[in-house]
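Q: What does the assembly look like in three dimensions?
Context provided by user:
Components: two
Sequences:
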Amino acid sequence: MSVNRSAVERRAATLGTRRSVKKDWQAAWLLRAVSCIDLTTLAGDDTPGRVRRLCAKARQPVRPEILQGLGAAELGLTTAAVCVYHAMVEPAVAALRGSKIPVAAVSTGFPAGLSPFEQRLAEIRASVEAGAREIDIVITRAHVLLGDWQALYDEVRAFRDAGGDAHVKTILATGELGRLRNVYQASLVCMMGGADFVKTSTGKESVNATLPVGITMVRAIRAYGERTGVRVGLKPAGGIRTAKDALMWLILMKEELGRPWMEAALFRFGASSLLGDIERQLEHQLTGRYSAAHRHPMA
Amino acid sequence: MSRIAEIYETLEYGPAPESADHADAWLDGHERRFGVFLGGAWEYGSSGETFETVSPSSGHHLATVTQGSAEDVDRAVRAARAAFPEWRALDGHARARHLYAVARRLQKHARLFAVLESMDNGKPIRESRDLDIPLVARHFYHHAGWSQLMAEELPGYAPVGVVGQIIPWNFPLLMLAWKIAPALAMGNTVVLKPAELTPLTALLFAELCDDAGLPPGVVNIVTGDGSTGAALVAHPDVDKIAFTGSTEVGRIIRAATAGTGKRLSLELGGKSPFVVYEDADLDSVVEGVVDAIWFNQGQVCCAGSRILVQEGVAGELERKLRARMETLRMGDPLDKGVDMGAIVAPVQLEKIRSLVAQGQEEGARIWQPSWSAPEEGWFYPPTLCTDVSPSSTIAQVEIFGPVVVMMTFRTPAEAVALANDTRYGLAASVWTESVNLALDVAPRIKAGTVWVNCTNLFDAAAGFGGYRESGYGREGGREGLFEYVKPAWQEGRRGGAPDADGSARGGAPVDAVDGHGPTGSSAASDGQDESPSTEARAPAERTAGPSLPGIDRTAKLYIGGRQVRPDADYSIPVRAHDGTVMTEVPRGNRKDVRNAVEAAHEAARGWVPRTAHNRAQILYYLAENLSARATELADRLTTLSGEASRATEEVDAAVRRLFTYAAWADKWDGRVHHTPFRNVTLAMPEPIGVLAVVCPDEAPLLGFISTVAPAVAMGNAVVAVPSRQGPVLATDFYQVLETSDVPAGVVNIVTGSDEELRPVLASHDDVDGMWYFGSAEGAADVERLSTGNMKRTWVDHGLERDWFSAEQGQGEDFLWEATQIKNIWIPYGE
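A: Here is the predicted structure of the complete assembly.
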């Protein structure tokens, strides 16, 4: 098992130059991207009011007349989930009541993941009890950096069990793992430990979701699926801000894993500002005029 | 359901066409008719003949182009000749400004060039836009720099003159840049013939040269078919031919230019190995294969067309490849979302089809993806052939299409053996995560470029070119410049007969053969007509003393470290200056050559891995032992020439020369090129292999040492035919070889007739290179007969060199000719 960084980077560099999605196709793909967004706020100054605003945006991520104009009104478009800290789970659940949008909670001492192990388990249980249907856990990076794969497996297994029926996404914090080989191995171990998704980053590392990291994780997902038949999802998070970025990631998913990995069941964006850019592009697609941020309701 | 809602479900890519409007407008602006570009002006051809160029993806007419006639070629060469004196006289900075202007203009019109290239050639716009055209601009920038630096970096070198350049259709503008940029930078003027199938970007380039203010005649473009190329090759006033294309045509050009004194560089075909070791990143290997063989529809001379995979991971790789092939996209070359476009022409498509069919007949399993190629235009799907062995036709011949064969190996050594089991040697790709393995294997693969964990990377700063039947010469990098310069002392002399028919030779000393009157150093009698002589011996061994007769010294051949009798026991006399026979040497024949070449190969296996320091020590030791026998050798030379002081001088010069090459042995360093990737590109000089050397007739000792020593210093094993006039110096010398720790077989000496031995050596398919310092006729023979294995040759066309001069008798020139540069690309990063 090996990952050659230079070769992976070359692949990353040509993904977006080998494929192009234009016009109606671009609009459709961007709508698809919206449906895969875990609309996120993970700030120290989050309040219930701020979270309610976010949830409202998740319910109606694109102005209805734009959707109408694009012939996409009947899609019932929402974001995939709303992602918050544990403290904000309750207001989010309340705000999303009546929709099918799940609340995802970052957990286990997010973002560093170094609080006492029992507390981390308790945090998962508390969020699930509060109504979170998805749990984004962070792994102990030290296990990866020290090559203690058993410890990593045990940790993920324990988190998985604590999460019960909740959807578990394991955050690798790839920006802190040092090498792509570690990313690949950690992805595999997390999947063995029962992760439903592997996620690149907390958004708090200095380097977040990069395409080479994405390619590496996607290849691990493919290898795991080939051996077990289990489909695991990918969630790139952090640093994905433009519609163009979103298309690039969707192209990656289509190229390396195929169509099933192009919807929310197996693919999510962890993003806060991405939606705004997509909205502008969709309006441009509709009107032929370049749009402005203030023409779209904020989250 | 609306269309967008539908696509929301299918998530297909849809079309993403690049507009052809600007390119069409340019074509229309010329009414879709083009002349030839001569002396800075457009002319419509002397013959009035034209041909059509069409779009490979639709078959639609693009433009009507002039069929350049021999007369057009002649006028182009005249224009280039007329422009040459002024162009070469410009200082490097001025030429650099011109090349810089060309580079800038290329960038400013990059998209127009890219679109036009894809229309004419059928390659995906992604490739022309992201690879071809940026590399073209890069090539001109880089060589603008070499022009600026020429005076300091290449002192003692002068431009070659008027260069005829013939390029292929697979990378039309890029090959033009590889040809024109270094030629112009070094002060040459050019006549370039683009490929018949893809002339358009060259014509646009001609227009650009005009706009950029390039002096008229510096660049001339003559469009046409093979006959136009042939006229260019045959033109007597062309000083050099540079060709990229098939090995078949390369052979024809080599034969056609033999003996004319024209310089030649050839970049020919390939069947490049793509070696996958079990520790490689197989997912990345798969993308590597995409870049290797499905780049430009596989119409790439260095395409990695032979996958050699370690047996244990072969099944997994095959499975991954098949899956990947399903996701390749083929279609309109101007679609921004396709991986593969069209095959350039029906004839090429037919060739691919028939070779694949032949492969199938021979038992190969053919795999193609489930999607089908477009019906309109000339398309061929990506194809993987398994159940193939080295003996399969499709594993040997260049298909020049998107077809890759896959074979397995067991050990690193077997991988190298399979990789080298080909007539070609253009490139190789090696995939392993082990630095030990990569750096062990890369030097052992016979190829001009070795890509480690990557493939098909190119840059102006790195040399590109072949080993073996993939040609000779390099394009790019410092090593590429030497194709377009010659030592300044050779200015004004070209040698050979410009008419290429092998008859008249100018300045050949051999004209004066009389067999009995060697006059100084220019005599060239080789005893061809001499029957074993019974004439009275000259008192050649007079040093033995006044009263006793000398003891007969029987010279033998020196093969494989042993003194051996010739296959046929014939001897030829060696005459003293007064015409008397001083002794006899064996008359070696073709079997002796065969034995010597075998011995040399045997020796090369041990000689190449020796450290350069060790080779230096042996050369110093040779000098030491030669010096110890200086008096005896000087006496021999005196007997031959009658000039005692010159003889002493020659022995002294020979000792110095050995010191020179002992010194060079560990100093002819490679380089690390600054290619714009995160990698080291190592440009390593490697020996040619087994080198045949026909030594000059003149200066029997110094000529022998001056040619054999650099070859050996650089790690070659040599089969030397010593001076026919004074072979005894070489046969005396083998005793020095024996006492100097020169390993058996590194230097082999076959005495005999030039006429008899040179064709055997020149046509020997296991001789890797040949130096010839004999007559003009001999040089023509050697060049003509080298086509069997396309061995690299170096001849003086019968022109003399002053072997006593440091400028002419030694130096860089000899080291370049004794080595070939291999570029090894090693990306890094964890």
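Follow-up: Chain B touches chain A through 39 residues (CB under 8 Å).
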